[in-house]
Please model this.
Amino acid sequence: MASNPEQYDSALLGILQNEGKVAPFIDVVLGFLYRRTDFFRIMKKDTDKLGFPPGVALKLLENIFKKYENLAAQDYKRTEEMKNLREKMTESASKESTDAEPKVKVITDTEKTPKESKSNEERSKDEPVEKRMKEMHMETPADSQVKESTSQDKQNTESSKDKGDNDDDETEDPEQTRLRRELQANPLTYNGAERESYYWSQTITEVDLRVKVPKHIGKGKQVKVELKKKHISVQIQETDNSWRDVVNNDISWEINTEESMWTLNPGEFVHINLEKKQERWWEHVFVDEPKINTRKIDCSRPMTDLDDEAQAKIEEMMYNQRQKQLGLPQSHELKTHEMLRKAWDAEGSPFKGQPFDPSKFNVDTSGIVNFDN
Model:
């Protein structure tokens, strides 16, 4: 495999854009192997120097296909594990918050010692009622009125805040809610919208714009696409060979034109993948388009969008979570185990001559080793 798997992307992308679909693209690649190589030539005699033994070429294709099929499955598995980990961390944080609430023990009169009861009875004869109530941390009638007033003000404030936060939900009618959910469920309009001449969807880093084309548009040469930092134009060739603008408009935010690309789905749409110059959620693609409510979209980020360091940290967290559930050492413990294994039988070690036994110690999250007595 090439050291840089993306070095041929530009050439292959040009072929894919011209063919429009994946099946013809694969046909072009295999056709090249048929015409210019001995890939499809079968070795029938031991003396043959060109080609492959029967079935070997097909097996080679199957192995390459399985390689990328496994990579896709691993990507999906990591995404699902990350999703489950986030849910578990949220539940754990919620539980810890609940457990952290202070517990107050209420002592009843029956639990008081005779001495305390007697002392209280004697004081009650001489001290004013309000003074005794305050010393016992009880509310006087005046305190109760002040507290009720303060509590009511606090409830009114929180109620107003909640009402403001949920205002959008209350004002959205059931039909709008249904349409929004349909858009979110459709990959063509995920986190985006459907317009008269196009669909669009987005992640935090990319926008996928699909411009609708007539049935007779079947080749890349029937389409002209121009991508600028803040402008997109798409033209199609009519049956009379004239050219018509389908899209010709300014976009709301800048894009990286070098990393943006397009392909044709014949008779359906021109698929334009736009790389955002700035990571942010777009409210619309074109400046004169109605805005969507970005508070109601899925703002989670796929794991593949993160840098290598962040992905490695997340994978370590997921690994530790699985190890913890299975009662096995976590990553920081394994590193310490390896260091101790090397020093276990070293000169001067109290365990010299004994087999390495991890049950004699434990490792906390900061890496500190505690030996059991």
